Amino acid sequence: MNRLSDIGTIKSILSKHGFSFSKSLGQNFLVNPRVCPEMAAQSGAGSGVGVIEIGPGIGVLTVELAQLADKVVTIELDKRLLPVLDETLAEFDNIKVVNDDILKIDLNKLIEEEFSGMDVVVCANLPYYITSPVIMRLLEERLPIRAITVMVQKEAADRICAPLGTRKAGAVTASVNYYAQAQTLFKVSAGSFMPPPKVDSAVIRLDIRDTSPVEVADEALMFSVIKAAFAQRRKTILNSLKNSLGLDRDKVADALDSCNIPQTARAEQLTLENFADIANALNK
Ligand code: SAM
Q1: Per-residue pLDDT tens over the stretch 28-84
Q2: Contact 65, 12 (CB under 8 A)
Q3: Which residues lie below 8 Å from residue 47, measured CB to CB, with a gap of 6+?
Q4: pLDDT over 70 for what percent of the chain?
Q5: I want to staple 60 with a disulfide (CB 3.0 to 4.6 A). Which of 4, 75, 120, 255 is the partner?
Q6: pTM of the model
Q7: Contact of 122 with 138, CB cutoff 8 Å
Q8: What's the 68 CA to ligand 1 centre distance in angstroms?
Q9: If you measure from the C-alpha of residue 245 to the centroid of ligand 1, how many angstroms do you get, rounded to a whole number?
């Protein structure tokens, strides 16, 4: 068993280094021994694969990934964890710890320098305060990665993995869907963490698409349409696009008519094809 998921071991390592948890950095460490092996196994880590991990904490998931993959580069923002990781990861020669911010580091450069000739996947128990920005950054930069397997709040998992055209869908559902196929792998209870967060969590996997599922002339415009549509999700699509994008009512009405989308439809009823069609019609 991975000793780093044992509460007694964690407490003694952390107290030896005088470490206290930072709420603002989303520090909830996994203490359920079943979670990390399962996450690592389902992440695509294996022979010939390099893994980018975000926020190793004391390294509980890192060691599971390093046992499967050729190499793990793990990015930790909190300097105080570096001496802890020096100790906990000492026996591995295929792990590199980088002290940086996942929202700022140059990931294309990192992949080029660290993972030459390898397939690359991302696997992380994400700090929840930056769930969406991290996921959207990884997708929008079109990094050469195959899959993203991450622990997120259960509510975020439900939203991201919801089928489009249903009430559970949101702007993030449509945006993620454009780049990847999302699925929930398994749920994780709040009690699996120290300290326990207020909500349950789930592990999701995003398998990056080789080709876009819809054809769209102006991607940025499609994402603006998606954002505008869900910003006022109770309003009709006609009104929300008119208001949020500051467009002329007739222009929006004509675009919707040309795509055979009822002007009274709501964002949550629309598919990715619908959003692409609207963007293409507005672009004409
Ligand atoms: N992987 C460990 C585990 O599962 O027990 C820790 C996960 S904890 C939820 C999130 C980790 O992300 C913490 O170690 C935290 O310090 C780190 N972190 C927070 N913000 C970060 C950022 N912007 N860039 C990189 N790491 C960050």
Answers
A1: 999 999 999 999 999 999 999 999 999 999 999 999 999 999 999 999 999 999 999
A2: no
A3: 69, 70
A4: 100
A5: 4
A6: 0.96
A7: yes
A8: 21
A9: 36
